[in-house]
């Protein structure tokens, strides 16, 4: 058996073990990226094979925590794709204004960059007090980090640059305070946000939302799992609710494609019409 | 077939794709280092104006079709799976997203001896791991002749891995690609 086939087998067994022992189901994640993430964890643990990683992760829950962190951290920035936030402001905010109460779901929020961006946008548009953002992630550790709102100071330049390109109405530095080499975001931004653990793979719909912002999360899933999650989103959106995806994602090939109209082709904003 | 470039890479890539034959059956996936906020579409239209094959930025889970050129989108890694592309926003590798190593390694895993890699001009050593991995998996590895490159650091670093099959100027790389695309 060639070596690479053994590796594929090891990966499958590892994913099966994680599911059977811990209940975390990564079996339908896109293979190329999950393999890279598993390899990175394997190297950092000083192990030579994925079978070695399987043994450690089964017998050492702390190793599972570390692996879960690897699998749930996305390296993104506040106001990533400024044109997207501008489209939300120009095209979605007028829709949201028509609701007395606004529920927004931000699944796969990771360390919260997107959640804070949305909170700032809502505050500047005067919608904060009647909006609630439900920010969810599979991993409790990243949720805790998101809640604390502490980011390395050297990232502020990039965040500010994005915010300016978005056309923010205030000064970005008003939203955080500097402590040494860290920046802590104004906790009042989260007064209307709820952080909760939720697994897109296995958990059910838990509310009805006017807007779901799920950008660059499903790129880690294979097509079958994407389809399941799209079904979950469809059932979680109110009629005429909006689904926002990443620039390189699409609902074109999903089973609910016909239930949406395209609000903005470039920014991947879709409104549920059926 | 995967292509990576950095400093001067867009110009080199423009020259390379201009020499591809209409009807070339290769699928070409390209990772060029560029700014995270470089405008979408500008690179596509620049290359499309020179290239006889359709050029597009890869979208998540796009099926890989022969006779097309796919570009890694700015600020994403482009990964190859059997039959389709995948994207990720994992941390930059060697300060780069897209990373040439990520594209090359995943292409080598997915297509083994049916894969191939080309390193163009650049001023860093991204692509070295990918070239080595490609060689181990049996893919063909080529590098732009450093004497013809705007910046020779990246070609030099790739050659220093000892895993490079051919060192050629752009027109001859294009000739090899056209040959493979006719087979």
**Total number of helical segments of chain B?**
6
- Quickly give the structural class of chain B: alpha/beta
Shape descriptor of chain B reads: globular
Distance between the termini of chain A: 51 Å
Q: Count the E strands of chain A.
A: 10
Rg of chain B: 14 Å
SS elements, strand count of chain B: 9
Helix content of chain A: 40-55%
The CATH H-level superfamily of chain B is Methylesterase CheB, C-terminal domain
Strand percentage of chain A = 15-25%
The CATH topology name of chain B reads Rossmann fold
The CATH homologous superfamily of the largest domain in chain A is named: Vaccinia Virus protein VP39
Name the helix and strand elements of chain A from N-terminus to C-terminus, one letter apiece.
Answer: HHHHHEHEHEHEEEEHEEE
The helix/strand series of chain B, from N terminus to C terminus, equals EHEHEEEEHEHEHEH
Compact description:
The complex is a heterodimer of chains A (274) and B (183). With 274 residues, chain A is an alpha/beta fold.
């Amino acid at each position: 058996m060639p070596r690479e086939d053994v590796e594929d087998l090891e990966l499958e067994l590892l994913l099966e073990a994680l599911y059977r022992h811990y209940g975390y189901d990564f079996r339908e994640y896109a293979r190329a990226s999950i393999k890279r993430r598993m390899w990175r964890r394997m190297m950092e643990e000083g192990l030579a094979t994925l079978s070695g990683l399987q043994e450690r992760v089964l017998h050492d829950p702390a190793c599972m925590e570390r692996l879960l962190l690897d699998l749930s951290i996305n390296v993104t920035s506040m106001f990533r794709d400024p044109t997207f936030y501008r489209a939300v402001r120009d095209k979605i905010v007028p829709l949201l204004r028509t609701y007395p109460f606004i529920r927004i779901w931000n699944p796969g929020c990771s360390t919260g960059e997107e959640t804070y961006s949305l909170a700032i946008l809502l505050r500047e548009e005067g919608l904060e007090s009647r909006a609630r953002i439900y920010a969810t992630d599979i991993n409790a550790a990243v949720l805790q980090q998101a809640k604390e709102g502490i980011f390395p100071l050297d990232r502020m330049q990039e965040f500010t640059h994005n915010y300016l390109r978005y056309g923010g109405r205030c000064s970005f530095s008003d939203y955080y305070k500097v402590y040494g080499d860290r920046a802590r975001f104004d906790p009042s931004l989260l007064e209307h946000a709820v952080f909760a653990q939720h697994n897109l793979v296995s958990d059910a719909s838990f509310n009805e939302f006017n807007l779901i912002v799920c950008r660059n999360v499903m790129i880690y899933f294979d097509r079958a799992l994407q389809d399941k999650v799209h079904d979950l989103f469809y059932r979680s959106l109110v009629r005429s609710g909006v689904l926002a995806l990443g620039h390189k994602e699409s609902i074109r090939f999903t089973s609910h494609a016909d239930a949406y109209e395209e609000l903005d082709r470039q920014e991947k904003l879709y409104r549920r019409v059926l | 077939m995967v292509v990576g470039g950095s400093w001067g890479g867009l110009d080199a890539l423009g020259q390379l794709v201009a020499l591809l034959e209409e009807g070339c059956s290769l699928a070409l996936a390209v990772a060029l280092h560029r700014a995270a906020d470089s405008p979408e579409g500008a690179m596509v239209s620049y290359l499309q104006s020179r290239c006889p094959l359709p050029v597009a930025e890869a979208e998540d889970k796009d099926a890989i079709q022969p006779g097309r050129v796919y570009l890694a989108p700015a600020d994403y890694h482009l990964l190859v799976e059997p039959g389709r592309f995948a994207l990720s926003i994992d941390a930059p590798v060697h300060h780069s997203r897209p990373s040439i190593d990520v594209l090359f390694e995943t292409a080598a895993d997915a297509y083994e001896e049916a894969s191939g890699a080309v390193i163009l001009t650049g001023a860093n050593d991204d692509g070295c791991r990918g070239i080595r991995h490609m060689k181990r998996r049996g893919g063909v590895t080529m590098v732009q002749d450093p004497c013809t490159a705007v910046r020779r650091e990246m070609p030099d670093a790739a050659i220093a891995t000892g895993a490079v099959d051919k060192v050629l100027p752009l027109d001859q790389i294009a000739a090899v690609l056209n040959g493979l695309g006719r087979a």
